[in-house]
Amino acid sequence: MRQILFAAAIALAVSILLTPLLIKMFAKQGFGQEIRVDGPASHQAKRGTPTMGGVAIVIGMWAGYLGSHLIGIGYRAEGPSASGLLVLGLATFLGVVGFLDDFIKIRKQRNLGLTAAGKYVGQLGAAVVFGVLALQFKGRNGLTPASRHLSYVRDVTTVSMGVIIFLLFVCFVVVAWSNAVNLTDGLDGLAAGSMGLVLGGYVVITFWQYYHACSTKPEAGCYNVRDPLDLALVCAAAAAACIGFLWWNAAPAKIFMGDTGSLALGGLLAGLSITSRTELLMIVIGALFVAEAASVVLQVVVFRTTRNRLFKMAPFHHHFELSKWAETTVIIRFWLLAGIASAVGLGLFYSEYLSAVG
């Protein structure tokens, strides 16, 4: 428990102190955000706001994770695990893809960075490497970071995948979550605040998995997860890094996370869902991100079939802006929805545990 608190404290301090330095540096270099010309008119005032602030989030979560382990040496805590390093590695690689996308946008001074093909190549490459490595590194309990079974709260043993199918599944999960968070990042603080709530829920889930791990407490309802405590450190560090960044990203934003942050955080969710054996539960806890991505898909499908628009603009947070909701009203209400989704997910997680032990 102490390590979780250390991870959060270090990540929060690094993120909240580093972000203003990035604001000054990026503003001096002219690394300003380009705004969609077809977006809400009020957003045009945000043009030129420094972007690529996701760098602070990525550095913050690494600092929190590694710093907590350095402190843990003093009381003989276990070192970094394969699961924790793989999840952070996946997030970081996708953050690099996002950084390239942001940098190209800035250099070309338009709201289009990497081509769709280029972005997918980066996402799929990261997913394949993560998927292959996640099936390696057996721990003392014989478990690997990932399982070839589909999972809800634990493995669904009746649904097993071959290696190729598993890698295709990982590719889908990584692309889906990274794009979902990327689509949600359209209002000041919306993605950062929502991620803090989702990751906060996962701190509880992974710590509960650690406390009831089959390797230490082989009882009814125990969890076969390779490194649950280390995943709790990752979640705590990432949640705190998002909160520290939110201090500067809340409306009116002094800096945007850009694709650097949104792709990294989406990759983090994908990696966590796979290594904690909760791919299906993540859909509930991250329901806000799922809804944002679904709104884009529905908008395209409805428009192509009927030539009418389902929403005034997608992702659907812009629909409410164009319906005369104040931006801060949309943000706060969407945070509430993210919090409700996290609470419902935690309720489902705990109810499954009660069913297992009952």
TrEMBL record:
EC number: 2.7.8.13
One GO term (biological process): cell division
Localization: Cell membrane; Membrane
Transmembrane segments: 6-27, 54-75, 81-100, 120-137, 157-177, 189-211, 231-248, 255-274, 280-303, 330-350
Coarse class of the protein's main subcellular location: membrane
Cofactor(s), by name: Mg(2+)
Catalytic activity field: UDP-N-acetyl-alpha-D-muramoyl-L-alanyl-gamma-D-glutamyl-meso-2,6-diaminopimeloyl-D-alanyl-D-alanine + di-trans,octa-cis-undecaprenyl phosphate = di-trans,octa-cis-undecaprenyl diphospho-N-acetyl-alpha-D-muramoyl-L-alanyl-D-glutamyl-meso-2,6-diaminopimeloyl-D-alanyl-D-alanine + UMP
Domain of life where this protein originates: Bacteria
Protein topology in the membrane: Multi-pass membrane protein
A Gene Ontology term for the protein's cellular component: plasma membrane
Entry keywords, A to Z: Cell cycle, Cell division, Cell membrane, Cell shape, Cell wall biogenesis/degradation, Magnesium, Membrane, Metal-binding, Peptidoglycan synthesis, Transferase, Transmembrane, Transmembrane helix
Pathway: Cell wall biogenesis; peptidoglycan biosynthesis
GO terms for MF: metal ion binding; phospho-N-acetylmuramoyl-pentapeptide-transferase activity; UDP-N-acetylmuramoyl-L-alanyl-D-glutamyl-meso-2,6-diaminopimelyl-D-alanyl-D-alanine:undecaprenyl-phosphate transferase activity
Annotated binding of Mg(2+), by residue: N182, D259
Uppermost EC category: transferase
Family from the record: Belongs to the glycosyltransferase 4 family. MraY subfamily.
Function of the protein: Catalyzes the initial step of the lipid cycle reactions in the biosynthesis of the cell wall peptidoglycan: transfers peptidoglycan precursor phospho-MurNAc-pentapeptide from UDP-MurNAc-pentapeptide onto the lipid carrier undecaprenyl phosphate, yielding undecaprenyl-pyrophosphoryl-MurNAc-pentapeptide, known as lipid I.
Descriptive protein name: Phospho-N-acetylmuramoyl-pentapeptide-transferase
Species whose genome carries this gene: Nocardia panacis
